[in-house]
Design goal:
Largest sheet: 6 strands, parallel
Strand content: 5-15%
Order of helices and strands: EHEHHHEHEEEHEHEHEHEHEHEEHHH
Number of strands: 13
CATH class of one domain: Alpha Beta
Radius of gyration: 20 Å
CATH superfamily of one domain: Queuine tRNA-ribosyltransferase-like
CATH architecture of one domain: Alpha-Beta Barrel
Structural class: alpha/beta
Length: about 350
């Protein structure tokens, strides 16, 4: 994907930088690990420090000193997660901040305005995420809102996309907008959602509303159904997944982009992903283990530190523990995608996709 700030090789895993930071890891380390694109959160940055402040400071790339590609979500999932603090209408969602209880309102247009102010390379249409399990009537209503909001997001984006702060300095290039497929766990609704979004002609397409508690087999079924509809010459993005074996399976199915908080969140709790499976570094068996976390891994942590030391940091509550564990887990996830890309290249590869042309 040829984006304004970076050409990104796919399939790609995007580390999650919720508040303009991938927790516990510096931007320099993300670059060293080979991260080409990261995800930031519209809802959280809107609340703090505020999208207008970020716009005044030159956009999110400049604010967080990240020269590579950025994607911002729409805030829809975070608002969805505030079920006790929100009220949904055709116009949008009224909600109370989880920080201080203050009242706010997100419409499709407002979500797009915030994302234009943040200046990510890829923006997401505002959607209404369907919980699991959900009765068919609930899924149909959620789909109705998501499709209406997708059209409003796209219309507003087309009218204002040239307002992004870095447009002139990057030769007139601008942002891209992806639509989000919803429909719960009903294959016909998923197919209808995908077909209608393709008719609207977004720059790329995401599959949302997965990994919300459904069985893995159902996740795979929904992804396969939607991939059969979405065009292969535009990026296809599965949101919020998953475990290492899952992201590899999805990539081999034809998914181009994935993100998940799992490698960073698990790291902070002492769970490491390795070539031999999951490793809970808090285990007493590692107290004097001088071997690396993963003998098959060549990341900076595995080259330098022992399991015993990582366990000591975890047991001592040292901040370095979260940093080192996160570096390893991100390296492991990024390494999976690199391996899949090499395999695809050996099979002939795919054509590039140019997004946000001038």
């Amino acid at each position: 994907m040829h984006l304004p700030h970076r050409s990104v090789e796919t399939p790609v895993f995007m580390p999650v930088g919720t508040a303009g930071t991938v927790k516990a890891v510096s931007q320099e380390m993300l670059e060293a690990l080979g991260a080409e694109i990261i995800l930031a959160n519209t809802y959280h940055l809107y609340l703090r420090p505020g999208h207008e402040a970020i716009r005044r400071m030159g956009g999110l790339h400049r604010f967080m000193s990240w020269p590579r590609a950025l994607l911002t979500d729409s805030g829809g999932f975070q608002v969805f997660s505030l079920s006790a603090l929100r009220k949904v209408s055709d116009e949008g969602v009224s909600f109370r901040s989880h920080l201080d209880g203050s009242s706010h309102f997100f419409s499709p247009e407002h979500s797009i305005d915030i994302q234009i102010a943040l200046g990510a390379d890829i923006c997401m249409a505002f959607d209404e995420c369907t919980e699991y399990p959900a009765e068919r009537g609930r899924a149909e209503e959620s789909l109705r809102l998501t499709m209406a909001w997708a059209r409003r997001s796209l219309d507003h984006f087309k009218a204002h996309r040239d307002e992004v702060v870095w447009r002139e300095e990057l030769g007139g290039r601008t942002q891209s907008l992806f639509g989000i497929v919803q429909g719960g766990m009903y294959t016909d609704l998923r197919r209808e959602s995908a077909e209608r979004l393709v008719e609207m002609d977004f720059d790329g397409y995401a599959i949302g509303g997965l990994s919300v508690g459904e069985p893995r087999e159902l996740t795979m079924e929904m992804i396969a159904e939607v991939l059969s509809v979405l065009p292969a010459n535009k990026p296809r993005y599965v949101m919020g997944v998953g475990y290492p074996d899952e992201i590899e399976a999805y990539a081999r199915m034809g998914v181009d982009m994935m993100d998940c908080v799992l490698p960073t969140r698990a790291a902070r709790h002492g769970l490491l992903f390795t070539s031999a499976g999951r490793l809970n570094i808090k285990g007493a068996r590692y107290a004097e283990d001088q071997g690396p976390p993963d003998p098959a891994c060549n990341c900076p942590v595995c080259r330098r530190y022992s399991r015993a030391y990582l366990r000591h940091l975890m047991q001592s509550g040292e901040a370095l523990s979260g940093t080192l564990n996160t570096i390893h887990n991100l390296a492991y996830y990024l390494g999976i995608m690199e391996r899949v890309r090499r395999g695809l290249a050996a099979d002939g590869g795919v054509d590039g996709m140019s997004l946000s042309a001038s």
